[in-house]
Specification:
The protein is an alpha/beta fold. It is 40% helix and 17% strand. The protein has helices at 26-36, 45-52, 75-87, 101-110, 124-133, 171-183, 205-208, 215-221, 229-234, 260-271, 289-295, 307-322, 343-356, 369-377, 381-384, 389-410, and strands at residues 15-19, 40-44, 62-67, 91-96, 114-117, 158-164, 193-197, 237-239, 243-246, 276-280, 298-303, 330-337, 360-365. Strands 8-9-7-10-6-11-12-13 form an eight-stranded mixed beta sheet, with helices on both faces. A five-stranded parallel beta sheet has the order 2-1-3-4-5, sandwiched between helices. Strand 8 and strand 9 (243-246) form a beta hairpin. Helix 2 (45-52) packs parallel to helix 3 and helix 6 (171-183) crosses helix 16. It is globular. The N and C termini lie far apart (108 Å).
């Protein structure tokens, strides 16, 4: 009597990679196996549309479209694949190596949900998969979060950029809090203050001020040539009717998706409608960093008393001086500075400044847990911990900036 051999059911396919040749993306193969085991497959560009018509595609959660510089000629076909997947409710992760910003822009607009550069950063693919599986719903803009200022076009605002030279140096905390302090600098004075979050990928001004990210920011940045003061003002969100914010875009975007001309137009629109423009910069240097530096009246560079900050400050100094850029605009801000009574700490600051050939002019004390709590609650320190030592120093800095601006305006 023969016994039947029961064949195991094939593993259900929940994702597929789509590329010209998957062998060109070995790291993608490894990361897909790590994330999905055997629950994924691979298709060529020419097979994808036909596969979507088959029953096997009904369980797809997402596709990972992998492209390199040689695939630019397939852009139309890839766009059709993205649109077909989008129409079927399938998420799209775009894996790109050496694609032009224009092509990336085009594919993102056609419906790609996530962008991941290749070679893949560690854990980036698994994090992208997690994001598309649990997408953050778009927060509705409440009535009180609609723009409360109209365009004037008659200002000549002071531009203050804030750039953290390493992670965790307090750049975004400084940007959000100095904006609030400038907006509330004195009773009876109501300077118009704007924050531009130019960290297009991981900007967190919206988190620190409890504001939603808006799709309209991407729409504005993707077509700055047709932007005017009115359209610029419409993308801003007010915080307590004091500070107006252009948040980072809702989606994760490449930093080079916009160019120096786009940044120039946005800064000009902000300057002509506000008294103070605070720019929160990404830690990465990009093609338009020079544009911000050139337009800024002061460029705050946040560091800490450690080797990574010292090395990055030295590299930045050499890069700017090599290109004959205005290094003198930089004002180094020491985050978590030692207390006044810490003589050893003061000596370390002096040695660091001398070894780098810089002047560390602004010392910001450690505000402790209250700073993280204020950021998590979406409030400036002035509203959550007014007596915090960090808040007091930021207040002093804002006051000195405002007084200098006032004296220059009156010619004193």
């Amino acid at each position: 009597m023969c016994s039947a051999i029961i064949q195991p059911e094939p593993a259900p396919i929940t994702a597929v990679t789509i590329s010209r040749d998957i062998a060109n993306f070995e790291l993608l193969i490894e990361d897909m196996e790590a994330a999905l085991g055997e629950h994924w497959g691979d298709l060529g560009f020419g097979d994808a549309l036909a596969f979507f018509e088959q029953a096997d595609s009904e369980g797809l959660e997402f596709i990972a479209v992998a492209m390199d510089a040689d695939d630019a000629k397939h852009a139309t076909m890839v766009g059709d694949i993205i649109e077909a997947a989008k129409s079927r409710g399938i998420k799209i992760i775009l894996i790109a190596e050496d694609l032009s910003p224009a092509l990336l822009h085009q594919l993102l607009r056609q419906g790609a949900d996530e962008f991941v550069p290749y070679p893949l950063p560690e854990n980036e693919l698994s994090e992208a998969i997690e994001r598309i599986r649990t997408p953050e719903p778009a927060a509705p803009v409440a009535q009180e979060q609609t723009p409360t200022l109209s365009a004037t076009g008659d200002h000549n605002g002071v531009v203050l950029a804030v750039h953290g030279l390493a992670g965790g140096t307090g750049a975004t905390t400084l940007a959000s809090n100095i904006a609030w302090e400038l907006a509330t600098i004195a009773k009876g004075e109501n300077p118009r203050v704007c924050i531009l979050d130019f960290d297009l990928q991981f900007g967190s001004i919206s988190t620190y001020l409890d504001l939603p990210r808006r799709e309209t920011v991407y729409e504005l940045l993707s077509d700055t040539e047709s932007m005017d003061s009115d359209s610029f003002m419409q993308v801003l969100l007010p915080f307590n009717d004091k500070v107006h914010v252009m948040t980072a875009p809702f989606d994760l975007l490449p930093l080079d998706i916009i160019g120096p001309e786009d940044i120039e137009r946005v800064i000009e629109a902000a300057r002509t409608n506000f008294d103070y423009v605070i720019i929160d910069m990404p830690t990465t240097l990009v093609a338009w960093t020079e544009t911000v530096l050139t337009n800024a009246h002061v460029y705050f560079a946040n560091v800490e008393l450690d080797m990574r900050s010292a090395q990055n400050a030295l590299r930045l100094k050499k890069a700017l001086q090599a290109e004959d850029l205005p290094f003198e605009k930089l004002r180094f801000v020491l985050n978590r500075a030692p207390k006044f009574t810490d003589l050893n700490g003061k000596s370390r600051i002096k040695r660091m400044a001398e070894s780098l050939g810089i002047s560390i002019e602004v010392l910001m004390p450690d505000g402790g847990k209250q700073v993280a709590q204020a950021d998590d609650h979406g409030l400036p320190l002035a509203l959550s911990a007014a007596k915090n030592p960090l808040r007091k120093e930021i207040r002093k800095l804002a006051k000195s900036v405002h007084e200098l601006n006032q004296s220059e305006a009156t010619g004193d």
